[in-house]
Amino acid sequence: MGLKEGTTLRAAVDEKPRNIGAYAVQCAKCFKLRLIPTEEEYEVIRQAFDEDPWVCNRKPNASCDDPADLEFGDTSRWVVDKPNIPKTPAGCKRVLTMRGDFSKMDAWYVMPNGKRVRSLRDVGRFLEAHPEYQGQFFVPNFRFTVPKVMEGMFPGISKEQGSSGTSKRRKNSKRGGSD
């Protein structure tokens, strides 16, 4: 399975399919996948990917001549991040969770005081309610864009399955159609 040039990836390779187990990036030259050791390093790469495409020789002791660190396979669950998402503001934690039906992920941030925000509107409300953070955080520093779940990477999950709301709409549209 090929990806378009300049793709950043997250690979959920641990035993807990709803948690991210590894971070990877695709080389802009050879298109091989390379593991990125930390979420923080991954976010730095992702935030400027279009302006500064990542290549294998940025990873210590790696080159395009080396075998890929990861290959797509049926045993790993993959989601693809969009490039140029800002790095999570210092003191906050960006949380991504896979829905139970593996149809998509949800994103939110945990603020320094433990409060969760789930939208830009929530960030604005948080800043209004907590003026002590107004010089530290700015609404444009937060993105709720979620990675795309790669089709065919979840055994038993078909393209027809989606979130529960999507499934209900599909069932209703099938019932309402002419047979």
UniProtKB/TrEMBL annotation:
User: Pfam families given for it?
Assistant: MBD (PF01429), zf-CW (PF07496)
Where in the cell?
Answer: Nucleus
Give GO cellular component annotations, separated by semicolons.
nucleus
TM regions (residue ranges)? none
What PROSITE patterns does the record point to?
MBD, ZF_CW
Segments carrying the region annotation (Disordered) are 155-179
* GO molecular-function term, one example from the UniProt record: DNA binding
Renumbered to this chain, the Basic residues biased-composition regions fall at: 167-179
Q: Which residues are in the CW-type domain?
A: 17-72
Chief location of this protein within or outside the cell? nucleus
- InterPro entries from the xrefs? DNA-bd_dom_sf (IPR016177), Methyl_CpG_DNA-bd (IPR001739), Znf_CW (IPR011124)
Which keywords has UniProt assigned to this entry? Answer: DNA-binding, Metal-binding, Nucleus, Transcription, Transcription regulation, Zinc, Zinc-finger
Domain called MBD: residue spans: 78-149
Q: What is this protein called?
A: Methyl-CpG-binding domain-containing protein 4
Which species does the entry assign this protein to? Anthurium amnicola
| Organism lineage string | Eukaryota, Viridiplantae, Streptophyta, Embryophyta, Tracheophyta
Question: Which gene specifies this protein's sequence?
Answer: MBD4_9
